[in-house]
């Protein structure tokens, strides 16, 4: 029972990370640094539109996580996206990152937690209970 609660809490945290970054930071443009990052990395002319699209994709990730559809593939994609994004940002826009070079440390911790939750903890749970 305890593992099920931990699993759900970690899943909720991942939902909140994607939701806050997608809705609050990008779609509502409450954290201008995100658009600045897009401007420097991808394209200055369309940074607003591209930031909005990225925010919408993050909201799609929230829906996918909550759907439980192909959850292992979902976690693999989350890990891949988070690590690629953080490595690119570390190399190209370190000055715009909230924690500078330490952003990648938080990204690694987040992805390790996602991995453990889906591939180890969930495997233990499926032996004993059904996860919804």
Could you give a short description of this structure?
Keywords: Membrane, Transmembrane, Transmembrane helix. It is built from 5 helices and no strands.
User: Would you tell me the structural class of the helices and strands?
Assistant: mainly alpha
Strand portion: under 5%
Would you list the SSEs in sequence order as H and E?
Answer: HHHHH
Estimated radius of gyration: 16 Å
- Helical fraction: over 70%
* Major β-sheet annotation: none
Distance between the termini: 13 Å
Would you kindly provide a written description of the structure presented here, covering whatever features stand out?
InterPro entries: DoxX-like. Keywords: Membrane, Transmembrane, Transmembrane helix. The chain crosses the membrane at residues 49-66, 73-93, 99-117. The protein has 132 residues and is an all-alpha fold. It has one domain (2-128). The chain has five helices and no strands. The protein has helices spanning 2-27, 32-41, 47-67, 71-92, 103-128. The chain is elongated and about 55 Å long.
Blueprint of the fold:
Elements (H helix, E strand, L loop, with lengths): L1 H26 L4 H10 L5 H21 L3 H22 L10 H26 L4
Helix pairs in contact: 1-3, 1-5, 2-3, 3-4, 4-5
Keywords: Membrane, Transmembrane, Transmembrane helix
Protein name: DoxX-like family protein
What are its keywords?
about 130 residues, mainly alpha, single chain
């Amino acid at each position: 029972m305890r593992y099920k609660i931990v699993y759900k809490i970690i899943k909720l945290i991942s939902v909140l990370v994607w939701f806050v970054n997608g809705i609050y930071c990008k779609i509502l443009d409450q954290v201008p640094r995100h658009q600045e990052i897009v401007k420097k990395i991808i394209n200055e002319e369309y940074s607003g539109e591209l930031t909005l699209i990225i925010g919408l994709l993050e909201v799609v990730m929230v829906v996918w996580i909550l759907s439980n559809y192909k959850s292992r593939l979902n976690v693999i994609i989350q890990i891949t996206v988070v690590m690629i994004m953080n490595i690119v940002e570390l190399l190209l826009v370190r000055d715009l990152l909230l924690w500078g070079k330490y952003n990648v440390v938080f990204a690694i911790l987040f992805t390790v937690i996602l991995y453990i939750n889906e591939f180890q903890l969930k495997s233990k749970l499926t032996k004993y209970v059904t996860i919804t």
